[in-house]
Amino acid sequence: MNTLSTPIAPIETQDPSMLIAELARSARKAQRVLAAMSSEDRAGALKLAARQMRADAAEILAANAKDIEAGEADGLTKAMLDRLTLDDERLEGIASAVEAVARLPDPVGEVIDEAQRPNGLKLSRVRVPIGTIGIIYESRPNVTADAAALCVRAGNAALLRGGSEAVHSNRAILASLAAGLREGGVPVEAVQLVPTQDRAAVGAMLTASGLIDMIVPRGGKSLVARVQSDARVPVLAHLDGINHTYIHSAADPEMARDIALNAKMRRTGICGAMETLLIDSGFSEAASLVASLIEAGVEVRGNDRIQALDERVIAASANDWDTEYLDAILSVAMVDGFDDATAHIARHSSAHTDVIVTSDEAVAEQFFARVDSAIVMHNASSQFADGGEFGLGAEIGIATGRLHARGPVALEGLTTYKWLVRGSGQARP
Q1: Closest residue by Cα to residue 36 from 187, 183, 189
Q2: In the prediction, which pLDDT does 5 show?
Q3: For the segment 257-275, what is each residue's pLDDT rounded down to a tens digit?
């Protein structure tokens, strides 16, 4: 069955506030049905959705090709085009991620803890869905599937607002997913794509308090900053991915080179990419490491001591240490020991992901204790900062705040809890 033969018509004329309110009310109604479904039925519906995506692969890729063509004509950056591009391998990865989410343990109904009071009251905290989740994202058609899968598995409704640069891809993916979910008994309104690219719809989502329970932004700094500034709904987000890798004096040179090259160059446009490299003054292979990065195509911007190692290094400005490049550009500083490195990270990190490379386990443990980021790593590339790599199946985003959820947010992060109190006739004196 070709689920994409009838395109989803955009709605550009309806008042955005009225549109969002209508979509959110229908989502809330569908969410109650979804939350009442068994865990097995929700998982089964996701497996059908993944199967349908594979069946519709040609149509989805054709829709994506339209977005790529338009993006190139509009001058999208290489990083944006990379996030936007789908091929057979990436589409299979998206479908596989939906299946992986279906196989994950269902957090809904999990008893977090239990206690009995001296008066005989029995208390328990139980995980429940949050409700209706609004996801606002740019140039990432995979988010359509990831967000839908995670929300459905955790019993939440999803209201998706993708960027105009991915409009054809998002509509094609959602049409395919919706067909599979519907076959599995999930109400069609449980996962909806806002059918307009009017930017006022974003503002309507951000102020839909009482209709939308949480907003998750996925996109560039300007989008996330706007969401965090204007939202009247709780927000789960990170603003920047200014991620550091610190090469300690006791780092293995070959490991340091491999990790640095991977962290910067595997995919430069993702939020887990390294943006600043700190090299300890006691590391003997600093010049070789910098040369390897430059020869791999990295534009290195360094402080005076790094410039002295290689004439190809460009002088770093004060702004470079606070810049998320999302490109083959890297800020590099030489630091004098552990305290200097961690002080630099404290000043400039966005609390997303920070890494130490060292063979000294005691120093690594100090780094874990000292660095207060959502993800802290030892002897691994920051590109592992991803829900799939953490065994979460997929992620709805990476949160760098300190409340509710932190790091890759998957099923557990899409639940809250309620208290259950079981009595036997107690009345409070």
Answers
A1: 187
A2: 38
A3: 999 999 999 999 889 999 9
Alpha carbon 262 to its chain's center: 19
pTM value is 0.84
Closest by Cα among 158, 154, 168 to 189: 158
pLDDT tier at 33, thresholds 50, 70, 90: very high
Q: Which segments of 303-404 are extended strands (E)?
A: 314-315, 329-335, 353-357, 375-378, 397-399
DSSP 203: H
Q: How far apart are CA 84 and CA 267, in angstroms?
A: 13
| Of the candidates 29, 16, 148, 138, the residue with the CA atom closest to the CA atom of residue 80 | 138
Contact 183, 100 (CB under 8 A): no
> From edge to edge, which strands make up the β-sheet containing 375-378?
314-315, 299-302, 329-335, 274-280, 243-247, 353-357, 375-378
Residue 378: φ, ψ to 5°: -130, 125
d(CA 32, CA 343): 48
In this structure, the number of other CB atoms found within 10 A of the CB of residue 76 comes to: 18
Domains of the chain: 16-237 (3.40.605.10), 243-384 (3.40.309.10)
